[in-house]
Amino acid sequence: MLGVTGSIAAYKSADITSRLTDLGISVFPVLTKSACQFIQPLTLQTLARNPAVYDLWQEAESWQPSHIELADQADLLLVAPATAHCLANFAQGFSPDLLSSIHLATQAPTMLAPAMNGKMLAHSATQGNISLLRKRGYFFIEPQRGQLACGYEGDGKLADVDTIIDAVIDFFSQVE
Ligand SMILES: Cc1cc2nc3c(=O)[nH]c(=O)nc-3n(C[C@H](O)[C@H](O)[C@H](O)COP(=O)(O)O)c2cc1C
Question: For ligand 1, is residue 84 a contact (CB within 6 Å)?
């Protein structure tokens, strides 16, 4: 399951989807409403060759709620990029949308690749959420230092796509 949230780095999820699919990993994209402002679900759906979903209330024909069905199918929930808002939802157990509902309903490990403005990342609220999630055993793909889209230089840039792909490969090589 590839969660995509409302960061300017959301465009990189297309590359992540394509690279993972090429490796033979089945990718099911789940976008937040904000992510859809940055990248079209259709782009990810086409690259993944699987439906891209974003609406909690758009139920498939099955009797089972989609978020439960999707949560049950996942081997790994990777969120790349993960916004400050997503980290807060996950840390506090809020489930206002499809992605955060899947997050609560899945038993798959969660891997988070944060991306945000350096001051958002440094904020004690964000740092508190990150530390809570670390204590719960969530995997983090650390953001890097660099030129941020907001115009500042600092921490908070999404990890390189190569680093994200390597983390997923490592994960699956350890569970196999
Ligand atoms: C142009 C633009 C870029 C943004 N980039 C980021 C970002 O990189 N990281 C972040 O945490 N929030 C970013 N935001 C703010 C989020 O989109 C906003 O907090 C939103 O509520 C996140 O929703 P989501 O977590 O449900 O996707 C950005 C907003 C705008 C308008």
Answer: yes
Ligand 1 contact, 108 CB (< 6 A): no
CATH number of 2-175: 3.40.50.1950
The residue from 60, 125, 150, 169 that is catalytic is: 150
Active site residue 36: no
pTM as predicted: 0.96
- Ligand 1 centroid–CA 107 distance in Å is 26
- Tokens (6 digits) for 122: 């440094």
Give the DSSP letter string of 8-20.
Answer: GGGGHHHHHHHHH
Residues 19-78: tens digit of each pLDDT: 999 999 999 999 999 999 999 999 999 999 999 999 888 877 677 788 888 889 999 999
